[in-house]
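Z., the sequence and structure:
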Amino acid sequence: MPAMNKSIKLFRESAISYITKLNDKYDAINLSEGVPGLEPPEEMLKALTKSAASGPHQYAPSSGYDSIKKIIADKAGMTYGREVNPEKEIVVTCGATEGLICTLLAMLNPGDNVMVFSPFYESYGPDILLSGGEPVFIKFDPFTYEFDMEEIRDGFKNGARAIIICNPNNPGGKVFTREELKEIGNLAKKYDAFIIADEVYEHIVFQPSKFVSVASIEGLYDNTVVCNSISKTFSSSGWRVGYVTGPERIIENVKKVHDYVTSGAPSILQKTAECGFELDESYYTQLNGFYMSRRDYFAKKLDEAGIKHNNPQGTFFMLIDISQYLKLDAFKEYSDMDFCKWMIENIGVTAVPGSGFLLENTSNFIRVHFAKDFDVLNEAAKRLAKLNSLT
């Protein structure tokens, strides 16, 4: 029988997919999801109804309709503080996920190293491997958000071709400061490397943290590609409309890969998404307020229950420290996945094991999703409080 791609053997089953399927067998509160807690804006839903009747229903131009690229260019230009050419510096993709794999395929040669902050969004490692590269993991503490800049410096010195910065970070919720981004970016520039910025959570950032796009920092635009989407900003993760922005010399190659990967993002949904970018600032204020109120509420309930957790600066995820439970005799042979399975069956709460975001096979944390109704979060905290009866 013919052999399969050797890189695939290095992949693990998605921890999120596995744990979600397990949740369906039990009456548990599902905090493993990675979906927004809202429906798309009413303006977009009305536009979708209209487009369903009038179209377009056939293939869109491969790099996206001129109209949506112009709107994205205007939005990106305001974020980056510079003019963005809609024809030469933007390609519309099937979500940021496709944008990332197309970017890596366009950039990497076999054996190229790509630095990734760990814990990391679970697609990064497999995408790098599929693109012929080798991931190099830069550890940061998901509870204190500290990392060693010297590890990054050494990575570039040793020839790393690129670094991926998820900002705000999934799963940790870290929002990188301007100073951190500038130092990382200047190292990339010094060693002639790429910066790949995953900024899909840019509008879910909690005060006093402030979002800064690395593409907006003086002197870094020419080395930077930004992968983004409408999924989190407009609560439409199933629409699969994303976009990649960057300098022409990079985007022209990303377009070539995109042409042969998907041929184009959904036509009707591109057109529908246009009105989302035209919403005024009050929309983003309400969006951020929705998630911040739930973060604060859930954090308070966990504190009252005596459950240790981090304090995310952005995204709609929170990490819970399970190290004290894994030290108990009852769980001494348990991995974090085993512990998550036990929680589903015995506590009635579903979370994602931290190892799903790490190179290691186990971890001392789990990820929970707080974009839920307050009564659901309250009940989840009550159930999680039962963990303290174990100690």
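The domain at 54-279 is CATH 3.40.640.10 (Aspartate Aminotransferase; domain 2). The radius of gyration is 21 Å.

Let me know what you think.
H.
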